[in-house]
Design brief:
ABC transporter involved in vitamin B12 uptake, BtuC; 15 helices; single chain
Length: about 280
């Protein structure tokens, strides 16, 4: 079955739009995460959202809102925990990740058979997304892009140095916590796309690949978004044509994009040239 035939099916059109939204939303947030050197946040947020959704299913509640609530709650906890305990943010993220993972798998263990819906939160399935899922993804993605554009200078300052941002009068805590909330919201609405265990790759890999080609922040955002969309789209096509798990294909695609970016990176060639001299 070729692409034109697949396009006749609503589920495939929904999956294409979802890959576009996931690629843009996750990779744009990933630029901040990679530059601030807190890549573990994607893992912590995705497992927090997954834990909230799992317990929502156990209690008969809406998994999206419960997952979103716990992810946002965790985002508000990460900053103060790191600030008050004077720990590196990655340490506090590691603690929260381990707790979230424990809660998520505890909930899965307590759930009666069958556990298909809960397993979907782990692995994701971009081919089963509904119109309501796409609406939520669109709202969160557009809201995130709007807030990034609105606070662009503040985000850049905080990304460079929270201490310097505070010194020049920027409310760095508010900006930092807002960034964490955006990450939590983006992760939550994309749980069903790639899955909680693998969503981390769509946040980090496209941004890390884009960083191989440019130092300019504006270009970094654009290139990261393009690579994110390409990774998600390519993974979707491989999944559809070869009947493979969609989440795994998207993750492998994004990893392959990063690997190719490293191989052809102008920065890598420049470093090699300087070393040779």
């Amino acid at each position: 079955m070729d692409i034109l035939e697949l396009w006749n099916f609503a589920f495939f059109r929904n999956a294409v739009l979802a890959s576009l939204l996931c690629g843009i939303g996750c990779s744009v947030i990933g630029v901040f995460i990679v530059n601030m050197r807190i890549p573990f946040i994607g893992v912590a947020m995705s497992h927090a959202a997954m834990a909230g959704a799992v317990f929502a299913l156990l209690l008969g509640l809406d998994p999206l809102w419960c997952g979103f609530g716990l992810a946002v709650g965790v985002s508000f906890l990460i900053g103060p925990l790191a600030d008050r305990s004077r720990l590196d943010p990655n340490i506090s993220l590691g603690i929260i990740f381990s707790l979230s993972m424990g809660l998520a798998f505890l909930g899965i263990g307590l759930a009666p058979e069958p556990k298909n819906e809960m397993m979907g939160l782990i692995w994701g399935n971009i081919l089963l997304l509904s119109r309501q899922d796409l609406i939520r993804m669109s709202v969160v993605t557009l809201a995130g892009l709007f807030l990034i554009a609105l606070f662009y200078k503040e985000f850049k300052a905080v990304m460079f140095s929270r201490a310097l941002a505070a010194a020049v009068g920027i409310r760095e805590r508010f900006v930092y916590y807002l960034l964490l909330v955006l990450c939590g919201a983006t992760v939550t609405v994309n749980l069903d796309t790639v899955g909680g265990l693998m969503l981390f790759s769509m946040i980090v890999n496209p941004a890390a690949a884009a960083y191989q080609f440019t130092y300019r922040m504006g270009r970094l955002f654009i290139l990261s978004a393009l690579l994110g969309v390409f990774s998600a789209g390519t993974g979707l096509l491989f999944s559809s044509f070869f009947d493979l798990p969609s989440g795994a294909c998207v993750v492998i695609s994004s990893s392959a994009v990063f690997g190719l970016a490293v191989l052809v990176s102008p920065k890598r060639r420049q470093v090699g040239h300087v070393t040779a001299l």
